[in-house]
Amino acid sequence: MTRINSINHREKIIALWTVFLLGMLFHTQLALMPIFHGIDVAIMGHYHQESATIAEITPILWGMLVFFILPMLAIVATAFYEFKRYRVFHFGLTVVYTVLNLSHAIADLLVDPIAWYQIVLMVLLFFIGILLNIVAYQWMRIGSRGQNSSEFVVRSYLE
Fold first, then answer.
1. For residue 14, is it within any domain?
2. What is the value of pTM for the model shown?
3. Quick check: is 159 in a domain?
4. Mapping DSSP to helix (H, G, I), strand (E, B) and coil, where does residue 40 land?
5. Contact 79, 14 (CB under 8 A)
6. Residue 129's domain spans which residues?
7. How far apart are CA 48 and CA 132, in angstroms?
8. pLDDT at position 39, please?
9. Regions of the chain short of the pLDDT cut 70
């Protein structure tokens, strides 16, 4: 019997992380698009406060950098490593990102005015995260590190 989806878990994970990263990039781009139309996007400006300095937002920038770098490193590590410890760590990382993504979507619902286009994107990213959790969990459950996930599927199917 021919299987329609013969892509292994690692390839699925890399594809899902890549889509997730593209979604995060687009989330940021959507937030900045009003600038190109002459609209101020600074939150502080809405409350008639002074603009923040680069020193004040440096922790936010570092946080964004770490938040973006970890999936990049996960993509590289997933391409090269299949150790059980890594698979367990990776699954935990996907769960953390899904929880953070959901909390960010909820926080976006509390902003006035609500940017519904951002909410739609965040909900889509949440569901991509859930799919990533499922595939990462399946990968984590596979036997020894030398075992290819497609071999696992074939062996399970034949048994």
1. yes
2. 0.78
3. no
4. coil
5. yes
6. 9-34+42-149
7. 41
8. 78
9. 1-7, 41-50, 143-159
- Answer yes or no: are the C-beta atoms of 76 and 18 closer than 8 Å: no
Phi, psi of 46 (to 5 degrees): -70, -25
Q: Does a structural domain hold residue 143? A: yes
Q: How does DSSP classify residue 36?
A: G
Structural domain contains residue 68: yes
The burial of 3, by beta-carbon neighbours within 10 Å (0-12 exposed, 13-18 middle, 19 or more buried), is given as exposed
CA–CA separation, 107 and 114 (whole Å): 10
pLDDT digits (tens, 9 = 90+) for 15-28: 999 999 999 999 98
Q: For residue 97, with 0-12 CB atoms within 10 Å meaning exposed, 13-18 middle and 19 or more buried, which class applies?
A: buried
The helix/strand/coil state of 82 is coil
Burial of 47 (0-12, 13-18, 19+ CB in 10 A): exposed
Q: How many domains, in total, are found in the chain?
A: 1
